[in-house]
Specification:
heterodimer, A: about 325 residues, mainly alpha, two-stranded antiparallel ribbon, two-stranded antiparallel sheet, about 75% helix, B: about 240 residues, alpha/beta, 4-stranded antiparallel sheet, about 35% helix
């Protein structure tokens, strides 16, 4: 209950930021942060709770982005309608993929997840009639968002994106919170800890994993389409690339895998480090970023959250 | 009385290795059946065949009148047959309570309800003061008890215990024996794999002896203890090759 109040207060304070902050760059950083949080939380449902380390979540991210973009450019369907089609398509494909790949365990599942994302990337690259292939798609005129005839926003500033991003972050955190406390959450964590024991306790493994993948893919597609519209341009190598997947995995691992707050912490750390490095050392930033990630994982194998919790426990024990 | 579990001519091969061959026995409701035999006799493989982890290569497993060969382990558990593991499998990063809740969720969709069932079972095995401890941090004796509480929380009609006393000291074993007898009093059918003959004789109504994958003998504890073939199987046969 206390945590809920704190979270609600934090969300309200964040929601007030665009009133005080005018710098587009500052808002841009916040939007990146929200997207990173939402993606990390989305991945956490299947990767963190169920321990199924998908490194192919760019598949759902890209499917979300492409469906929404194609619907807008070819059919003139506004993204806030198109995105639901994007979510539905991602979930359907995710369930088919899950049904096949969840027979695999450990590293074999990881490899299969990468392969699936690669297959979809190549499909997007080669079905030029639909996707424009490697040229990509530019989201030219985003129709203004109207509600009952009044224009809510015409998407010409960062502010609407800020609020959309915040909503995505809050929504995915809420999804994690609810899942973790539900029957599904218990079952996922049991599968993560010991698959055979879970199976012997009456847990239908593939069905439960598929449920988690469905939720995870739906959230990822939702956030993916939003992120793509924020950038305004998509092409297969960018949205289906393995970088997207790895970024999601890292956000959860660095923050604290399998916890609700972990991806939030991971996103803050990663986005801030990445932006600070980009601004200060330009070209070398990816190299330093990589080294930092390795150091963090070595020093804090349970992520920042695990590290902090461990220190607090030791302090309490010493007292 | 019709049997709750019937194992009919079950064989299980791994390549050319015959882990079980033509094993048959039945378990009547309410009894405790002991399954003994030297290391490598195929006891755990038989458990795996019965509970769905490996489908039998041949033969049939009938539970409560229903043929369950090829059923997945979760389905077998839902039908009311739950097992423990020789090498305990705690869900290490979950607490003792959460571990037991996972078992209880087999029969309910409500987490609150499952917690109630779980607490009840934890009281039965004497872990009610350890509910918030991470299962990975428990000593072996408590892990075995947790394993018991967890299967009991699935509300089974029959449990299969794979060496629940392995690695325990005399006092802990005594506690487990009491639990088995207590559970038996409540009418729960049990199949127990065990090496400790004293524990077997005290708890079991009937004993099945496996050797090299085949059934060697079956009978009351008294009959088995006095059976020269069983002695030979444990201490090496008269051929003397292994002795």
């Amino acid at each position: 209950m206390k945590t809920l109040v704190v979270c609600a207060a934090a969300a309200v304070v964040l929601a007030l930021i665009p009133i005080w902050v005018e710098s587009p760059y500052a808002l841009h950083i916040f939007i990146l942060l929200f997207i990173a949080i939402a993606l990390g939380e989305s991945w956490n449902v299947i990767g963190g709770f169920a321990g199924q380390y998908s490194v192919g979540h760019s598949a759902w991210y890209g499917l979300g982005a492409y469906t929404a973009f194609v619907l807008l450019q070819r059919k003139g369907i506004a993204p806030w309608f198109g995105v639901w089609a994007a979510v539905a398509l991602s979930v359907i494909i995710a369930l088919v993929v899950g049904w096949i790949t969840f027979r695999l365990r450990g590293p074999y599942f990881v490899l299969a997840s990468i392969a699936v994302a690669e297959i979809i990337r190549l499909l997007a690259l080669n079905t030029k009639d639909l996707t424009n292939g490697a040229e990509g798609i530019l989201a030219s005129d985003l129709p203004p968002l109207k509600l009952g005839g009044t224009v809510i926003t015409d998407w010409n500033s960062k502010t609407p994106y800020f609020y959309m991003g915040l909503a995505m972050a809050v929504f995915t955190i809420a999804v994690n919170y609810v899942v973790k406390r539900s029957k599904l959450g218990y079952y996922l964590q049991a599968i993560r800890e010991d698959q055979d024991a879970a199976h012997s306790l009456g847990i239908p493994l593939t069905m439960v994993k598929n449920a988690a993948l469905g939720i995870s893919a739906a959230c990822t597609a939702l956030v993916g389409s939003f992120a793509a519209f924020y950038v305004g341009f998509i092409e297969p190598n960018q949205v289906f690339g393995i970088d997207v997947s790895i970024q999601m995995v890292l956000t959860a691992i660095i923050g604290g895998i399998g916890t609700v707050a972990g991806p939030v912490l991971g996103a803050v750390v990663l986005v801030l480090i990445s932006e600070a490095l980009r601004a200060s050392i330009a070209q070398a930033h990816l190299l330093v970023y990589g080294i930092l990630v390795i150091v963090v994982i070595l020093v804090m194998p349970d992520g920042f959250l695990g590290f902090i919790a461990h220190r607090l426990r030791r302090k309490a024990a010493a007292r | 009385m019709t049997a709750l579990l019937e194992v009919r001519n079950v064989s299980r091969f791994f390549g050319g290795v015959k882990a079980n061959q033509d094993v048959s026995f039945s378990v009547e409701p309410g009894i405790v059946l002991g399954l003994i035999g030297p290391n490598g006799a195929g006891k755990t493989t038989l458990f795996n065949c019965i509970t769905g982890f490996y489908p039998p290569s041949r033969g049939e497993v009938i539970f409560d009148g229903q043929r369950i060969n090829g059923f997945s382990p979760d389905k077998v558990c839902k039908l009311g047959m739950a097992r423990t593991w020789q090498k305990v499998r705690p869900l290490a990063k979950l607490t003792v309570l959460e571990n037991t809740v996972v078992g209880a969720l087999c029969r309910t969709n409500s987490v609150a309800e499952a917690e109630k069932i779980a607490l009840e079972q934890l009281r039965v095995v004497g872990l009610e003061k350890r509910t918030e401890v991470l299962a990975g941090g428990l000593p072996i004796g408590e892990r075995k008890k947790l394993e018991l509480a967890r299967v009991m929380a699935t509300k089974p009609r029959m449990i299969l215990l794979d060496e629940v006393m392995g690695g325990l000291n005399a006092r802990e074993s005594e506690e487990i024996i009491r639990l088995i007898l207590d559970v038996k009093k409540h009418g729960l059918t049990q199949v127990v794999i065990e090496h400790d003959m004293k524990a077997i004789v005290r708890t079991c109504d009937r004993i099945v002896v496996l050797n090299s994958g085949e059934k060697l003998a079956e009978g009351s504890p008294q009959q088995i203890v006095n059976d020269p073939r069983v002695m030979a199987a444990y201490l090496g046969d008269s051929g003397g090759a292994k002795a």
